[in-house]
Amino acid sequence: MINKLAAGIVRLRWAIIVLFVLLVGGLAAGIGQFKIDASADTLLVKDNKLYIESQLAAQVFSPDEFILLAYQPESHPLYSRQTFDDIAQMSAQIKKMERVEAVTSILTVPLIQDKSSLTGDTDVSQLSWQAQKYSPQQMQQLISGHPIFTDLLVNREDTATAIQVVFRQNPELQSLEQQMTEIEANLLTRDLTEQEQSQLAALKAQADPIKQALTRQRQQEIDQLNQIASQVNGRASTYLGGSYVVGQHLVDIIRSDLTLFGSAIAAVIALLLLILYRSVRWVIFPLGACAVSVSMTMGLFGWLDMRTTVISANFIALQLILTLAVMIHLIGAYRDISHQQPALNQYERVTAMLKQKLSPCFYATLTTSVGFASLIFSGLQPVVDFGYMMLSAMIITMLVGLLLFPALLALLRAKHESHDYSWITGLLNKLKTLSLRAPGTITVLILLIFGGTAFGISRLNVENSFIDYFAKDTQVYQELAFIDKQFGGSTPLDIILDMGEVDDEQQLVLTADTVNQLQLVQAAVNAFKATGSVTSIANFTELAKQLNDNKPLTEYELTAIYRLLDEKVVDQLIGAYFSPQTGQLRISVRVQDTTDNLNRAAFLQDLKQDISTVGVAADDVQLTSLFVLYQDILSRLFDSQVTTLGIVYLVLAIVLLVIFRSLKVALIALIPNVMTTLGILGVIGWLGIPLDIMTITIAAIAMGIAVDDTIHFVHAWLSGHKRGDAGQACKEAFGHTGMAILFTTTIIATGFSLFGFSDFIPSVNFGLLTATAMIMALVTDLTLLPALLNKFVGRTQTQPAG
């Protein structure tokens, strides 16, 4: 069958080329629809209880969409006319932006000097700097240490202030999202019906174009804000903060990684191919096939609306390298045939190449697909999506590598091929001799080395900070770190307390019991080192005491202050604190990600324990928002890693058994790859690199790619063994197959190492660790694998053959 397929591909070469021209034309039209999505949703597990609870809480308390523009004067005091003029000038320009609903700053908020200002006839808007034009000294006295505005509009050190830009929500999108959340809420108690699933899909389809337009508009708004902020350059430093700002930075990084590193890897591949083969044809044809492969994949993703996220941003680099790996093995076989049988014409050479390599290349791409398919079972939505994307990419890689490339190759003219570098063949011969003479020693030595490396798995951890995902010299890191340190943290955590029904007759929001309970909970929250800004109704009691000469106010006076300020300021600043409909109170917390040695799991566990200690029943408290969701992802990583690797090991063992039809050979082929994956996880542990949603994919991907070379080596070894003994088997395995393995590893490792120059730290870790894994796989394939084959399968001889 292989012989017939090989001959058929060469015979039907023009039909194959025409078919691919049509496929490329059809799929390439979808490239224009290819999308990058860096919204927070792409990093979260959507259909779990915590996500749905967070969405429901957001609907109840509805914090507004906002961007924070921080202002840090460089050569003048914070409380000065220059600061006020700059803030006023920027605010006036920001208000002109189309979607801006409100601009809040220390110049616009009501600044209450005493209790007498809180009479029923008081016009709160007349208590601001805009109306009163307070002096710098008065402003400092009114704002410094303010119970509500500190960490929101001014930092604790009084060295920086902030403008909060609140945006008007799209009513249509808001309605659609509310309907989606209502349907998803059913998942808390049961599975969705088919009707609900179809309704949800329809609502998402309606919302998507609105979200896409909103994303483009947000980009324009961020550019406008940066332009407005640039007007104070030289007098002050400015920083933009907010989830949408971070999301846009992620889009920029993804786009940069796709284009910059895709191009850089292509250039490095071209250079290495030219150095290794010393022929222009072995540069142009492989790169041309890679370009076709990537174009078809991008077009397919566009048509299927499979969007690139932070996790899948490196798919172009992966596609280039995986497609090239197939072709290098084909080129190696073609060149070997050309050296041994120079009289063959081009059709005969290509046919002989396919007869030799069609089967192992097919199985190699199949096993790589298994590695990616295992990611589907990770339980993490972005990783699952990445698995599906790479499965689609592998199908295209297989078609291009095994059909289009040979068809194009058959069009070339047969010519003399350059010989391989003698120092490379010499190195391979030494490894061959060593594996024949001392297989037991090599086996024990490699197992000890990799066993010691794998011991680092015990040091694996999942504690990492989102801020640390970015290089420290990047704008996004500097902005995130500044907001995190100076304005009360960057990761929101909401504590929802169920306080029972509100007294409708007295209409009291702040009863004595409520105030006491909130103060106890808030004191417990503030006790943590990582806690930044903590705001609730209890903050109004602090303001009230300040206004009343540090004497407590009555329940009615406290409620009056809350209602007065709430209507004018609080909803815009951080959303509502109280829901009379549900009888729930909200404590808004922001956690400082830059806190040293922050253990999120321990933080949440201790927080729940401390809240229960101050008298709040576990059923009456709910933790929601981004901090909880992010920790939920981290907590799943270990289980996900075990699941994905377990699936990879099991499925690959089955595939190898089917390929080689020998349990002994299948297990021998599996061992080097198991050692590689355990070894790279050990390296991650020893280096103290935390697992995240990118590093968790390395082991499965590394094994999926590395097993390709294992299959080629074992296939060549068994082919040689049929015609002789272990010596003959090693001669064939370490011949052009060994050369191809060395070349593919060199190119793959070099290509992935380029990610070390990325500004996105997970991409840096992914690239360098994957390159390391490839080198480890090369070592095991050229030492441990032949040693095991020679010892347990081959009939070894005293002197190596050839």
Which structural category do the helix and sheet elements fall into?
A: alpha+beta
Helix coverage percent of residues?
Answer: 55-70%
Sequence stretches where pLDDT stays below 50 over 5 or more residues: 796-802
Whole-number average pLDDT?
85
Q: What integer value in Å does the Rg equal?
A: 32 Å
Using DSSP, what is the number of strands?
9
Describe the largest sheet. 5 strands, antiparallel
Count of helix runs? 25
**What form results from the Cα inertia axes?**
elongated
Quick structural summary:
The protein has 802 residues and is α+β, with helices and mostly antiparallel strands.
What does this molecule look like?
It is a single chain. With 802 residues, this protein is of the alpha+beta class. It is 63% helix and 7% strand. A hairpin with a 4-residue loop joins strand 7 and strand 8. The chain is elongated.
